[in-house]
Amino acid sequence: MAIRIIIFEDNERLRNSLSYLLRSMPEYDVVGDYPNCRDAASITLTLQPDVALMDIDMPGENGIKGVGMVKEARPETAVIMYTVFEDDEKLFQCLCAGANGYLLKKTPPDKLFEAIREVVDGGAPMSPSIARRVLNSFQHAKTENKYQLSTRELEVLQLLSKGFSAKVIAGELNISFETVRSHLKNIYPKLHVNCGKEAIAKALSERIV
Amino acid sequence: MAIRIIIFEDNERLRNSLSYLLRSMPEYDVVGDYPNCRDAASITLTLQPDVALMDIDMPGENGIKGVGMVKEARPETAVIMYTVFEDDEKLFQCLCAGANGYLLKKTPPDKLFEAIREVVDGGAPMSPSIARRVLNSFQHAKTENKYQLSTRELEVLQLLSKGFSAKVIAGELNISFETVRSHLKNIYPKLHVNCGKEAIAKALSERIV
DNA sequence: ACGGTAATACCTCAATTGAGGGATTTGAAC
DNA sequence: GTTCAAATCCCTCAATTGAGGTATTACCGT
Question: Which residues of chain A form beta strands (DSSP E)?
Fold first, then answer.
């Protein structure tokens, strides 16, 4: 049975070309195409598509919102982003919203066809440069002590980031309460923060610990 | 110029087959193959390969260690994991260690060839089921309010997690200082913590915010 | 031998927080 | 119409923390 596809793309010429191209093959069936995501949820529920091709830059609700709408309405529909954007910001927003693939518009048609087949088979097609970005995001950069913390200061910060009080940290490290407080007072300016809570927030969100 | 490849694979028959297969094509040059990662660092420095094919399950240092060794010795060498393992644990360990690709051993030869070309061109070849796992890891599950926090409590916790004091939070939300303290007192038992620092640690590490 | 850094420890004071209360209003649910 | 949860606000008291010091020991590099 043909793969049911819907397209969200504001550029009319491109949208029509895509529709025409996909419809020309018996393997694919474009069951709807739209210039914006306004009714993405209800459209998805009505048409029950296997795949949604989603542009990002559209008037009104953009494609990032669009992914969320489609996925919430019908998680089985696989969403492939189809965009010119290559920046990390938009990329990871789409992935967090549930996108199942991410293709750049420079992708040649045969790769696009392959990607649609792949996503239906449970894969996650990505343009090569996108895949590289995604994998790179896992290397937490080894923060290599950006803030010049000493060994002991790092230990104190690690325990602080578990929510421990100065007293408990002192016990854990077998040093005095006042020493811990001294370390904390030295840590804060190095992290450019003013209190323990900010320090925890920074340590955890920048993976210093 | 031919792509320089090294192979780490403890199964001798498979290692020899791979070498033979790749050497049969002028496009590829297998400059070394080894049954373990013991000297991966020095080998990499000596042979200056473009690509390393890396098994995971090997005697001695396993392939996860191996990725780290190769990448530390020579970051320009692209490492492709080549393994039967499909579990998240090993997968994400490899990615964090710096792997540039992840292929399952069931990958047909033509896809393997393509993957090697792709990784040299700056891509990140992955078997479809692997790519899907990687993308899924970005959907932080929308924690669906495991701790039964009310809307307001969630807002307070979000601001707390930025390191704000009760006074500042009060200002941000346009409510009184004492109200914020009331919310905090209600939040702590719900999160099973005893103080703001623990709450921040929990909120950030469990992505409640 | 000297200077610098890290690690240790102590003191004081003001501010913030945690803990224990109590109290009112609103809107939704039954 | 009553009950209930959510959101608002106030009070007190003890503990913790932030800020401002000072001081000693040890080790490292020159």
Answer: 3-8, 28-34, 51-54, 78-83, 101-104
Predicted confidence (pLDDT) per residue in B169-184, tens digit: 999 999 999 999 999 9
Q: Which of A101, A123, A204 shows the shortest C-beta gap to B201?
A: A204
A-chain residues near B162 (CB < 8 A) = 198, 201
Nearest CA distance, A9 vs chain B (angstrom): 23
Report CA(A6)–C1'(C29) in Å, whole number.
42
Is B10 in a helix, a strand, or coil?
A: coil
Q: What angle do CA A88, B103, B1 make, to 5 degrees?
A: 85
Angle between helices B196-205 and A196-205 (to 10 degrees): 10
Contact B160, B184 (CB under 8 A): yes
Euclidean distance between CA atoms B70 and B52, whole angstroms = 8
Q: List strand C contacts in A 178-207 (CB < 7 A).
A: 178-179, 181-183, 197
SS3 A198: helix
B170 min Cα distance to partner chain A (Å): 16
Residue A142 has pLDDT above 80, yes or no: no
pTM higher than the cut 0.90: no
Question: Cβ atoms within 10 A of the Cβ of B136, count?
Answer: 14
Chain A residues with CB inside 8 Å of B110's CB? Answer: none
Return the half-sphere exposure (C-beta side, CA atoms, 13 A cut-off) of residue A184: 22
Reading the block at residue B181, the tokens are 């303290």
